[in-house]
Sequence to fold (106 residues):
Amino acid sequence: TAMAPATSSAQVSLLGNLSASQAAGSTLLIADAAGKVLAGFKATRAWQSVVLSVPSLVKGQAYKLYAGGTLSGTATGNYYPSGSLVGATLLGSFTAGQYTNPAPAA
Fold:
């Protein structure tokens, strides 16, 4: 299961838990309601949850997660700043919010 940002984080994040696992090597794209890709990733192992926190997310707005499509832009590790939804499959829609981990027990 994906972990949300720490309680000290003020940045909006997106937490998506899927009903089925996605394969290693798969492409993940996150797009806004208008279909603009905000970020993309190339998975190095099987995954079923994702946490994304980028400045362009707006609290309360819905975003869509896709498998497939095309990654573009200069990669930083497995992160790509853009991509194309052509050939992508919708995995689900999730609402961005102020998701945080609970404070550790004393």
